[in-house]
Amino acid sequence: xxxxATRAISTALTLGARxxxxxxxxxxxxxxxxxxxxxxxxxxxxxxxxGVRVLVGDAWGxxxxxxxxxxxxxxxxxxxxxxxxxxxxxxxxTVDLGPPVTSTGRFETHVQIDPFSVSLESKLALLxxxxxxxxxxxxxxxxxxxxxxxxxxxxxxxxxxAYVEQTIFESGGSISATAVEGNEIQVRSYPHSFRQQGTGxxxxxxxxDFPGHAERIAEEAVALLTADTCPSKETxxxxxxxxxxxxxxxxxxxxxxxxxxxxxxxxxxxxSFLTTEKLKDFRYGSNIVNLxxxxxxxxxxxxxxxxxxxxxxxxxxxVREGRFVGYLMSRETASTLGVQSNxxxxxxGWNRIPLIRMTNVSLEPxxxxxxxxxxDTDDGILMETNRSWSIDDMRYNFQFGTEVGYEIKNGKRGxxxxxxxxxxxxxxxxxxxxxxxxxxxxxLWGTPxxxxxxxxxxxxxxxxxxxxxxxxxxxxxxx
Length: 479
Description:
The chain has helices at residues 2-14, 70-87, 120-135, 203-208, 210-225, 241-253, 258-262, 331-336, 370-375, 426-431; strands at 19-35, 38-56, 59-65, 104-108, 140-158, 163-181, 184-190, 196-198, 228-229, 233-239, 291-294, 315-320, 323-324, 345-346, 355-356, 360-363, 379-391, 397-409, 412-418, 420-425, 433-436, 443-452, 457-465, 468-475. The protein has 479 residues and is an alpha+beta fold. The longest helix has 18 residues, at 70-87.
């Protein structure tokens, strides 16, 4: 494969490119789903291919193929050059990639149990066990569960001397219970309403313990049918860890993507309010809000050895003590700010060009015990597990709904609430944060279905959070 990559680079350089990189990816994806005690779906597929990206003058070109052969690599390299020259017909800004990237080495996800070494029978037995426990509750009408295993072997090389190899494993899954009574439908999910996924082996699924949580989510789904509806008012809001993770994804991660700021990637879900004059001067949140982007945290869906430009994994600040201090960047966008890339370029396959994507964007833990945070709240609502979300194209105005909520009165968690919703404006919301739980309550969540680009690319991102408290938040906005 090294000879193959070298040929792609030398061919493109000979044809006139000033920069070339090539990615070769072999992947396997296995997924299993059950529903109401039966196998709902089972798939296991493999893919292999390569992509060549070139810079001719100040214009990019890209081409790819599923055929690994000498004639094909020559053809694809030439096609990438042709595409770049066609793009150059419409002049753009000068492209500066910054310092050369000469990374070398190998990275592999640490796994205790290779997820592909576990038999289909064992995986199905786990899901069917959890499913049966959910269905013991007569109020549940639909029970579902799924597990997923991914392996990606990636090679990256560029014309500056970089050559890196990576093997990345991902494992994940979820279960859910749907209760129905008349026109009322309520769902409880575990670990959350998306498939919980991380870079790890089968031990990641074992640790989640689906059977151990099955009866609980069934009971909660049924209880929600007769629970009181979330009131409509302005109040104190405590968000559980998984819900806060999605809040971070939508209102922190996406607006910090520098290509959105520049408008070079606005085709899917819009741009960003975090324009460059705000860097280092904008009050994003209260002084206890610290947001970090990293690609080194164990099990994070944004964890790797090098991004798809060969930039090594790292950790960098986005918000420090409430001040906005950094973006998610590529080599090209970082150079416009006079800094070096923090390694956020990724593509979801060999046939897609890399885009700036979130790595693990996390809220650093605070100092509070969750019980103390609740005890310190006279009147409020605790919400957990996402049910719906909406945010505008600039990542400024948002609305979220959760599966479950609990009223807080006089420092005690009280009645169960259903159909909980809240809304806000991003900087106002984060400036209203006055308490964050400590590291004991912090968890790194995985969002496996982040969409961006046209054609859309689906990427996994990680988000760590502990429960947080926000004052004067509008809740019950859909009543």
